[in-house]
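So, can you check what follows?
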Amino acid sequence: MRATFAIQKFNPEIDARPHLEEYRLDVAWRGNTVLDGLFQIKHQLDGSLTFRASCRSAICGSCPMVINGRERLACQTLIADEIDRSGRIEVKPLRQLRVVKDLVVEMDPFWNKVNAITPWLTPKREAAFVRHARGEVGEVVIPQNVHQTFYNVDACILCGACVSACNSLDVSPGFLGPAALAKAYRFVADPREGERRERLERLTREDGVWDCVRCNFCVEVCPKDVQPMEAIIRLRREAIREGLTDHPGATHITAFMDIVRREGRLNEARMPLAMVWPNLFRMLKILPLGLKMFVKGKVPAFFQRPIKGIREIRRLFKLRETFK
């Protein structure tokens, strides 16, 4: 099989900007991966081609790249599939990170974000060790069903594909990012964690969980089905349960739920006021918009009767409180 690779090349010592370079090679069999192709190009056509690779088994997370416009592990992506889908294979380095050379990016910003969430357990004193009947001290072993509460976040191989695909990082470089926040949830969910609330307080500040725009790209590109966005949503829920509702994102959720609980539906006239109350300056700021909406007939009655069936809706809310 004949395959065409278009690879982004960039050597900072001689190139002013990155450029695509095409290579044509014969692929021995349909099971070859894009990483196999890159090695073949390096050994046969261009010895200067630079990329990272290690295990070749989708375990180490060394070879994430943007392949035909989407973040993938090169060792996991079949050449034949990409040829069938796109006719050729275009390979670029991860986005959001500075290119060092060709397909190699600077990973320090990624690791700094992971370090920022304190990626280790801070155990409760009483949960760290247990004293047995004979006086021996040993580690606490948590039940298997507790591991299920981590969902799949502990499967992360820290490849950085989700960070490359993240829309929030595109406009807010300080955002902790999906990989770091998914890692943070693993410790928040651990029953042995002694600083759970402190973690949530840090994660709900600027550049934390509320900066995620829920574009779902991190979920789509993750090679290990970690579903970082789902972990971020769970962190938001835990923060609200802890009463950390000062952020506008948390205020929006709590106000929305309160209005639906009382009226059985969203009242779009009350919602903005619930968001800004009792800040008089913010209330005056949204007043012109409210007047325009009123003139255009876009504002429902401020006081409206609960819908028919409101008891059933309130019963659902009570059930939800029961199963928290």
In short: The mean pLDDT is 90.
